[in-house]
Design goal:
five-stranded antiparallel β-sheet
């Protein structure tokens, strides 16, 4: 009984047009930001290093270098604040999580084109 209710709520909150991308892809994430009574779109570009969860609670982590410092953000896939995800470059990787990129910089942090 409870499982059916959870599945129903989960199905209601899943986007039908969820973005298609994989681990290692370079993406541009367009996020709606609320500032007071105004709303704007901010872009966060980087490499997808992880995808976690499933259903309405699925998230993905994007990493980029900003002024020599690694910055990571976690985005919910089915969030209403996520406007769109553009895939810039597809990479071929052999891991589900690319946490090893945290310790690499420069040319060592490149991923193989796929």
């Amino acid at each position: 009984m409870v499982a059916k209710a959870i599945a129903k709520i989960d199905a209601e909150n899943v986007k039908a047009d969820a973005p298609k991308f994989g681990i290692g892809d370079n993406v541009r994430v367009h996020v709606k930001i609320k500032e007071g009574d105004k709303e704007r779109v901010q872009v966060f570009a980087g490499a997808v290093i992880a995808r976690d969860g499933r259903g309405s609670t699925e998230t993905f982590t994007v990493r980029r270098m900003s002024y020599g410092v690694g910055v990571e953000k976690v985005f919910p896939v089915h969030s209403p604040y996520l406007e769109k995800v553009e895939v810039e470059r597809v990479a071929r990787v052999r891991r589900a999580k690319l946490y090893y990129l945290r310790s690499r910089s420069g040319k060592q942090a490149r991923l193989r084109e796929g």
